[in-house]
Amino acid sequence: MNALFKSLNDPTRREILQLLKERDLSAGEIADQFNISKPSISHHLDLLKRAGLVSSRRQGQFMLYSLNTTIVEDLLQWVLDLKK
Question: How many Cβ atoms are within 10 Å of 67's Cβ, its own excluded?
């Protein structure tokens, strides 16, 4: 759970999740949306993957990234359980 919260703590990573909410994207397509280096985007994607928020799959020569909605649902359920 700590990796999950750490990954959500960064505004760039939250914006990446917003982009992936719309559709699966390659790292290059994600990087095009930011004014930071591609290695920095790769680092953010790696942290999101380790937290379980993003998954990847190879399509030809590209890696496509997608939002893992299961972990998001688990997080929301955890937050709702805190209210009980």
Answer: 21
The pLDDT tens digits for 4-45 are 888 999 999 999 999 999 999 999 999 999 999 999 999 999
Q: What's the N-to-C CA distance of the chain in angstroms?
A: 19
Residue holding tokens 């928020």?
53
CA angle in degrees (0–180, nearest 5) for 68-72-78: 150
pTM of the complete model beyond 0.85: yes
Domain ranges of the chain: 2-83
Report, at the CATH architecture level, how domain 2-83 is classified. Answer: Orthogonal Bundle (1.10)
